[in-house]
C-alpha cells in the first residue's frame, strides 16, 4: 500500500494544523516544522512547545506518527540536538536540506548544503551515530542549488550516510515554487539509491498524485500545499471521498477552521497566530471561492475568538454543522512567545 505524508511547512503547519489535517484522515505520517540548530543544544521544553506530539507518544491527537525535522549545517551540533530530540521518542528525525530562506542559506544551511555532498554525508552520518537505532533518520532534499548536476551525488551521499529514506522535492532552490516539479528527476534519484524515496512537489489533486507516481515511479508521496488547499485531498486519494472537491463540502471546511481556531485558543500565545489561519484561508481559496469571502471578512481581525465568531455566523456553518466540531485536543504545554526556529513565515517557504 502506498503511503501519504503531510509535508513540513514552517509558519503554516504548526501542531494545531497538523492535528486538524491528520485527524481529517488519510495520512500515514507527518513532519514537524523545521527546528533550527545553531550553536547550542535546544532544551526539551522547546520541543514540548513546538512539537507537543512528543508528549503523546510522538503521535498527533488523531494518532498519526510525527517526525521531528532539524535544520542545520554543523555535524556535531546536529548530532547533539538530534540525540536530544530522539530522547523524546518521535517517530523519526528528519534532516532539512531544502530550505531556500536567505537567513538560513547565508549561514550555509538548508538548500546551500546541496552544493556539498560530502558535508551532507558528514551531517547524516553523525546524526545517525547519535540517534538510537530504533529511531529512523531521514532526509528531505531539493534537486540542487541552481542546477541538478549534483542531485544524484547528494542523494547517494545521504543514503550512504545512513538516511533510512529520502523525500525529494523535485525542484532546485532557484526554482523556488515555480511549476512544474521535475518528477522525472525523482525517478533518476530513486534508481540511484537503495533506500525508499518519497516523491514531493506540486500534488494538488488526485490526478496530480497519479501522474506524480507514474512519472517518479515512487509509490509514496508527500503533500504540502495541496493538503492545505484541500484538507480532504488525502481522503480523495484513498478513494474515501469524491475525487473532485464540491461546494457542499465548504461547511465541513468551516468546521475544520472552527476546530483550528478553538484549538489555537487553548494556547496562551494564540493571539499571535491569527496570521496562520489567514494563510490557510488563502490556500483554501484555490479550492473553494467561499474562502475568499471569508478571508476578506476576517482580514482585519487578530483575535482567534473574533475570527471564530465570524465563522459561526456563516450560514453554511450553521446549516450543515448541527453539532459544533469541537476541539478534542487536551490543553498542551502553554506556548511561550514564538519561537525557536529561525525563518520568518515569508522566508521559510521552501
Ligand atoms: C509555507 C511553507 C513552509 C515550508 N516549510 C518547510 C519546512 O519547515 N521544512 C521542509 O523541509 N520543507 C518546508 N516546506 C516545503 C514543503 O515541505 C514541500 O517540500 C513543498 O511545499 C513542495 O511540496 P508541495 O508542492 O506539496 O507543497 C515549506 C513549504 C511551504 C509552502
Helix-strand blueprint:
Blueprint: E1 4-6, H1 15-24, E2 29-36, H2 44-50, E3 66-71, H3 75-86, E4 93-97, H4 102-105, H5 117-130, E5 137-141, H6 151-161, E6 166-169, H7 183-192, E7 197-200, H8 206-216, E8 221-223, H9 225-229, H10 233-237, H11 250-265, H12 274-284, H13 290-298, H14 304-313, H15 315-320, H16 345-348
Parallel strand pairs: 1-2, 1-8, 2-3, 3-4, 4-5, 5-6, 6-7, 7-8
Helix pairs in contact: 1-11, 3-5, 5-6, 6-7, 7-8, 11-14, 12-13
The fraction of residues assigned to DSSP E strands is: 5-15%
**Structural class label:** alpha/beta
H/E topology pattern: EHEHEHEHHEHEHEHEHHHHHHHH
CATH H-level superfamily of the largest domain: Aldolase class I
The residue fraction in helices comes out at 40-55%
Biggest sheet layout: 8 strands, parallel, barrel
Question: Which term fits the overall shape?
Answer: globular
Number of domains: 2
Q: How many H/I helical runs?
A: 16
Which molecules other than protein and nucleic acid are bound?
flavin mononucleotide
Computed Rg:
19 Å
User: Strand sequence of the main sheet, in spatial order?
Assistant: 1-2-3-4-5-6-7-8
Chain-averaged pLDDT: 90
CATH architecture of the largest domain: Alpha-Beta Barrel
What is the strand tally?
A: 8
State the end-to-end CA separation: 28 Å
Stretches where pLDDT is under 50 for at least 5 consecutive residues are 321-350
CATH-derived topology of the largest domain = TIM Barrel
Q: What is the CATH domain class of the largest domain?
A: Alpha Beta
Amino acid at each position: 500500500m502506498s503511503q501519504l505524508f503531510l509535508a513540513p511547512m514552517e509558519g503554516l503547519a504548526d501542531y494545531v494544523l497538523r492535528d486538524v489535517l491528520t485527524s481529517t484522515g488519510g495520512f500515514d505520517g507527518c513532519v514537524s516544522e523545521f527546528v533550527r540548530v545553531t550553536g547550542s543544544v535546544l532544551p526539551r521544553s522547546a520541543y514540548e512547545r513546538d512539537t507537543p506530539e512528543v508528549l503523546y507518544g510522538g503521535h498527533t491527537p488523531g494518532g498519526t506518527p510525527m517526525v521531528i525535522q532539524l535544520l542545520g549545517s554543523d555535524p556535531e551540533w546536529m548530532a547533539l540536538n538530534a540525540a536530544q530530540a530522539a530522547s523524546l521518542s518521535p517517530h523519526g528525525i528528519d534532516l532539512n536540506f531544502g530550505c531556500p530562506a536567505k537567513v538560513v542559506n547565508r549561514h550555509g544551511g538548508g538548500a546551500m548544503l546541496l552544493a556539498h555532498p560530502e558535508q551532507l554525508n558528514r551531517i547524516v552520518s553523525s546524526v545517525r551515530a547519535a540517534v538510537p537505532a530504533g529511531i529512523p533518520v531521514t532526509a528531505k532534499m531539493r534537486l540542487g542549488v541552481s542546477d541538478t548536476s549534483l542531485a544524484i551525488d547528494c542523494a547517494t551521499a545521504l543514503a550512504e550516510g545512513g538516511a533510512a529514506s529520502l523525500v525529494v522535492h523535485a525542484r532546485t532552490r532557484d526554482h523556488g515554487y515555480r511549476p512544474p516539479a521535475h518528477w522525472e528527476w525523482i525517478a533518476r534519484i530513486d534508481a540511484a539509491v537503495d533506500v525508499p524515496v518519497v516523491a514531493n512537489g506540486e500534488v494538488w489533486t488526485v490526478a496530480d498524485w497519479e501522474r506524480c507516481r507514474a512519472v517518479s515511479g515512487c509509490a509514496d508521496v508527500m503533500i504540502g500545499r495541496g493538503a492545505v488547499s484541500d484538507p480532504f485531498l488525502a481522503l480523495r486519494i484513498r478513494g474515501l471521498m469524491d475525487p473532485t472537491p464540491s461546494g457542499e463540502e465548504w461547511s465541513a471546511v468551516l468546521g475544520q477552521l472552527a476546530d483550528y481556531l478553538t484549538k489555537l485558543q487553548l494556547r496562551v500565545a494564540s493571539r499571535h497566530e491569527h496570521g496562520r489561519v489567514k494563510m490557510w484561508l488563502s490556500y483554501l481559496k484555490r479550492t473553494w471561492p467561499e474562502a475568499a469571502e471569508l478571508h476578506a471578512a476576517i482580514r482585519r481581525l487578530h483575535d482567534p475568538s473574533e475570527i471564530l465568531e465570524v465563522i459561526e455566523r456563516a450560514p453554511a456553518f450553521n446549516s450543515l454543522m448541527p453539532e459544533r466540531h469541537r476541539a478534542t485536543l487536551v490543553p498542551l504545554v502553554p506556548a511561550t512567545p514564538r519561537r525557536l526556529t529561525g525563518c520568518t513565515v515569508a522566508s521559510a517557504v521552501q
